Amino acid sequence: MTQPMVDVVIVGAGAAGSLLAAKLAAGGKSVRVLEAGPAWSSDDLVSSQIWGRRLRWGGPFVASTGANPIAVTFNGGWGLGGSALHHYGTWPRLHVEDFKTRSQYGRGLDWPISYDDLRPYYDAIQSEVGLSGDASAEIWRPPGAPYPMPPLQRTAQADALERGFRNAGLHTAPAPMAINSVDYGGRPACLYDGWCDAGCPISALANPLALYQPQAIAKGARFDANLPVRRVIVGKSSDHVSGVDYIDSAGNRFTQPARVVILAASVVQNPALLLNSVSHHFPQGLANRHDQVGRYVMSHISVLMLGLMPEETEPHLGITGAQLICHDGYAKDGHVAPAFGSFQWLIAASIKPNDIAGIACSRPDLFGRELDEFMRSAVRHVGNMFGMAEQLPDPANRVTLSRSMTAWGTRAPIVTNRFSADETALWSQMRDQGIEVLKAAGAPQPWHSPPLTAHLAGGTIMGEDASQSVTNSYGQAHGIRNLFLAGPGLFPTIAGVNPTFTVHALALRSAEQILNKWSDFAA
User: Fold this and answer.
1) Cis peptide before 338 (omega within 30 of 0)
2) Was domain 6-521 assigned CATH 3.50.50.60?
3) Which of 167, 191, 412, 467 has the fewest CB atoms within 10 Å of its CB?
């Protein structure tokens, strides 16, 4: 069943898809957004670990393989808002050197743009969204406009951990957060109850339900949930696509024709959709003539550090992201060889007693009376911080398709990942610094997690050379004039910071390009 033609069809209603829908609809284009998952609203967000798990990937199974499997489900999203619905709102900018890692260090890949190209979009987004922080305290921050809101309030946990960083000779600053410290943009200030991980029902945290989806709908964009897209349809010639094929919950098939198609699903699902879109023109998958679709998937190799502080720290209060941030470890070549890359500390996040990232689960060696005694102290005295280190792009870390079929009638994706010796060495040095900081804060016996993974990037990277990348710097697929991709899958490197701010900046830049040169793209 063929639906009426629209100017733009967007696959995925997360951070990038929602922003693009808002900007393109405001530019006068008819926009339809197709989302595979449920139609969440702010009323569906419940401050509970159990209920918060509903916001993680809930679609067909994704196999995560390799020497160091990535936590795909935990890092993914499901439904309107995508993974940005449960993201923590920590929004640092990439550093200047992150864009030219290959040119400057002979490692990784270069972006086809520089920081200066993206700076005005960072500034515009932070004004629209409302970021809280103190740019002058971030001595490592690249040039840009100051934050429109003051920093968020602090708890005793932040004070205790800041003491450790100061005693260890390291710097901290209030974390730049997409969370209101004061009323901003018609949205209220934060309550500091520490449940960001389960979504923000009061919209103090700038998730898609709070900001860009309402803007898009007000301008006429249509969001339809529970409609998984199965493939992109290639037009009569190989340089354009004509729409997408999707199904409803009853298995009925539909075609949505569009003048421009934008894939704004996840780092896993965008490549899977392209690889499933085989045709006479693209027998190896859409936009995959050079076998680049799915390659260079990256994550942050991470560590959770904890210690018991002498004073009470109120660890259950605050925000899930971070109260403080430290980038003193960001110099890519500033570590003991073979370690290479950037890392950051996210300091004094709210932490609850139980569940996956809770205090109790951080000590699997304790049970019974010992666990009870530990928890009586830890729920009042624990301090925690999260170290996040850069993984370099490797073409062998990738999304491929299995032979098994999903309930959607598509081949299921497989994610393969391995951390290099450089990255494991960087993780070890980051962990050792964390132990030093916690001891300097007054925690005599710190402990830590094994290597974890946080965030996803790559898989459909941007670049100037069509034989080495999937899109240009605007997310336009090489050789296909009306197919665009959006999200962290475009990143040639993951850098050492959270990706969501950069996702928004790139999406704004792409929306501007599409509107300004519409006649060049529209089929």
Assistant:
1) yes
2) yes
3) 467
217 to 39, 209, 492: CA distances (angstroms):
14, 11, 32
Closest CA to 267 of 98, 19, 27, 70: 70
281: tokens are: 């023109």
Q: Do the bridges between strand 324-326 and strand 173-174 make them parallel or antiparallel, or are there none, so unpaired?
A: antiparallel
Nearest to 73 by CA among 88, 52, 91: 52
d(CA 59, CA 243): 22
Q: What's the pLDDT at 407?
A: 94
| Domain residue limits, the chain | 6-521
Q: What is the mean pLDDT of the chain?
A: 97
Give the whole-angstrom CA distance, residue 223 versus residue 33: 5
Q: Is the dihedral of CA 250, 12, 176, 448 positive or negative?
A: positive
Task: Say what the pLDDT of residue 454 is.
Answer: 96
**Cα 336 from Cα 332, distance rounded (Å):** 11
Average pLDDT over every residue of 30-42: 97
Q: Please give, one letter per residue, the 3-state secondary structure of 52-99.
A: HHHHCCCCCCCEEECCCCCCHHHHCCCCCCHHHHCCCCECCCCCHHHH
